Each structure stands twice: as C-alpha cells, then as structure tokens.
Amino acid sequence: MGIQCLVMQRWLKYQKGSRCSMRYHNITKADMLNGDGLRVVLWLAGCSHHCQACQNPITWDANDGLIFDEEAKREVFAELEKSWCNGLTLSGGDPLYVGNRKDVSLLVKEIKSKFPDKNIWCYTGYTWEELMKEVKEDENLKTILDNVDVLLEGRFVLSLALEKLHYVGSSNQRIIDVRSSLDTGVINLYIDNNKILKGEV
Ligand code: SF4
Predict the structure, then answer these.
(1) Is any ligand 1 atom within 6 A of the Cβ of residue 58?
(2) Is the CB of 10 under 6 A from ligand 1?
(3) What structural domains and CATH numbers belong to the chain?
(4) What is the Å distance from ligand 1's center to 17 Cα?
(5) For the segment 112-148, what is each residue's pLDDT rounded down to a tens digit?
(6) How is residue 168 annotated by DSSP?
C-alpha cells in the first residue's frame, strides 16, 4: 500500500471517531540506541523547546505526522509482545509536550497494565525540576511519571554536546530512575554519564 493511501485510510478512521489527537513520525523496532536492550521506539510530534542544532526539527510541529490511531498502537503492542523486546522508548519531538500529555498518559497506563514486565523510557526537553513544579497541577503528567521507569531529561545544549554520552546528546541531560526518585524525593540517576566520563564507574 502506498504511503498516501495509508495516510488517507488513517485520516478517514480518525474522522470516524478516534479520540486520539497525538501524532507521530515513526515507530522503530529492535532499536538499540535509545535505551537498554532491544526496544520499540515511538517518535512523537510536537516540541516547544527548539534547541539549537536539534537532530529532529521536523518533529517540532504537533500538527505534522500521522495520527496515533488504534492501528499504530497495535503496531507498538505487537513489538512489546515479543520476548526479546525490552520495552518502549518515547521520543520525538517531546513526548511531554503539553498537547501530548493526555494521550501519552493513557498509552503508558495501558502498556503497564498489559505488559507489566516491559519498561518504559521517555525523553523530554523539560528538566526534572520543571516537571516536579508542573506535576502538582497536571494529572496527566502525574500519570505519565507514575508509569515511566526512566526519564531522559533536559534540552540539548550544543556547547555541552559530547559523543561519548550514553543515550543523550549533551552533558546537562540526565537519565533518571523515576520510581526511586519519586519515592525518595531525591534525584536518583539510572545512568550517571558524568561519572562514566570521569572513569568513576
Ligand atoms: S527537546 Fe529534543 S526534540 Fe525538542 S528541540 Fe530539543 S533536542 Fe529537539
């Protein structure tokens, strides 16, 4: 089926009543670059941070890409059913772009209930501190953080960019163990890139 037919078919389905307004650009499978193990990665549309030298500026526009409909969800779930698939990574764009939060919250909740053994990693341009301020007022964000295992946070800063970092592009970006950080109220890093660079681990 040509890409135009696929887009039209999905658009018609959306018109018929799908309530999901979140859009995505790609679903990559057996991905080894965006989290531990082999993963399925959902590349969402929408980002308001506009970091200098962002690698995916095509994803900034929340109205671009395809609607994340039931068919796309089934595609993600089919990957999560595979024994070798370690989990889902949400990337983009920014999965925590305000317009994405409701649909992302529903998605991560459903995944945790259907696939309790799979982990969820989530990239965002927001810092942990910014999210902790917002979460008090944002139920969708709270649900997301209650279901995400690892958060890769912070804007990409060109002057801090380093090639050797694990899973992130600049040294200000942290890889946070969400569960233990929320439980203790103190940021607990899942991977400490700065210590790795100094040879301390
Ligand atoms: S947060 Fe990520 S997607 Fe958004 S502009 Fe920065 S690097 Fe690009």
Answers:
(1) no
(2) no
(3) 3-158 (3.20.20.70)
(4) 31
(5) 999 999 999 999 999 999 999 999 999 999 999 999 9
(6) -
